[in-house]
Amino acid sequence: MRRLERTHIASMTGYTPGEQPREPGIVKLNTNENPFPPSPGVFEALRDFDAASLQKYPEPDCRSLRQAIAAELQIAEAEVVVTNGGDELLRMVFTTFCAPDSCVLSTEPTYSLYPVLAALHQCKFVGVSLDQGRGLPSALPGQVRDLAPSLVLIVNPHAPTGRLFPLQALHDLACAVPGVLLIDEAYVDFVAPKQEHNSLALIAEHPNVILLRTFSKGYALAGLRLGFGLGNEALIAPMATKVRDSYNVDGIAQALGLAAWQDQAHKAKNTARIRAERERVRAALIAEGFEVPESHANFVHATPPAGVFAQNLFADLKSKGVLVRYFAHPGDALRITIGSEAENDAMLGALRG
Ligand SMILES: Cc1ncc(COP(=O)(O)O)c(C=O)c1O
User: Fold this and answer.
1) What are 67-101's pLDDT values in tens digits?
2) Best mutation site among 216, 221, 226, 299 for ligand 1, i.e. most ligand atoms within 8 A of its Cβ?
3) What is the whole-number distance in angstroms between the Cα of residue 353 and the centre of ligand 1?
4) Residues 316-326: pLDDT tens digits?
5) What pTM was estimated for this model as a whole?
6) Which of 54, 225, 302, 338 reaches 20 to 30 Å from 278, CA-CA?
7) Looking at beta carbons, which pairs linking 350-353 to residues 24 or more positions away fall under 8 Å?
8) CATH number of 40-263
């Protein structure tokens, strides 16, 4: 049959989402969802939601939620854009800032949606390999200088390794990048308060930095599809006023997102529980001979002991009803989402035998 899609779309490969099993009883530790429920305020807002209001369009610019986010973070409303998941922000950033044939840089490994968005926008994607250490790739500054990227994408805390790049390194990178530096903070809610990791200064000081945040992880609302971007008004305005779909976030998502946002205490409690589980799971895996670097996200990156192959472990766990993710880079490893206490025990039990 004659193909009617554009040539570059015909030749590219789409994004493959993590497996979403239909059968009950699967221990699902493969897509970094939150195992604990969202705020009781979300349940209440859903119960009280006036279905008749769906007859009308929602607030086109998510005004109420934007105001609440700006007030809590002590930034201007014009520095916030609310999106249909963090993924929509990523798409909007590519559409707004990345001309065809321009270069987009990230780390290798990174979030696998990035190269897909680059292909969709006919950009050249380059992944700079992570070093063994804890910092940004040492080759990154040279690549930034040589390739003059329109966009650099850094996941922080990093996925799939869980490492946290220091803010000073991101400040230095922002100064060096000629285009936009997007710091994907999908997992930032799991950074321990004692790290004093406050990235908001990055948007105050650098007119080319955008921060991505999401309700999917720390707020336990992956099914709602709600995220937001933060940045200098001149970066946010073209996305919010031109590139965004006319009503990109539905009325239910706006109402439930507002309820979740207004209960920061619940998010703090929920993420503290996950951090405690993360340390317990990490210690248990280390005791089994895995190499597990410190993680600042809601997953751990576990390299099996010598002679054991992560791909085999992945298949073995799957056969026992436990889903995790397998990564071949950097090194043969599993990425294991931190689940509830019972789910983590089931995963550890399946690994042991
Ligand atoms: C690194 C990273 N960025 C962004 C997202 C997008 O999150 P969402 O679209 O659910 O807000 C994810 C989802 O897993 C992610 O892992």
Assistant:
1) 999 999 999 999 999 999 999 999 999 999 999 99
2) 216
3) 32
4) 999 999 999 99
5) 0.97
6) 225
7) 350/27, 350/316, 350/317, 350/320, 350/321, 350/322, 351/285, 351/288, 351/313, 351/317, 352/288
8) 3.40.640.10
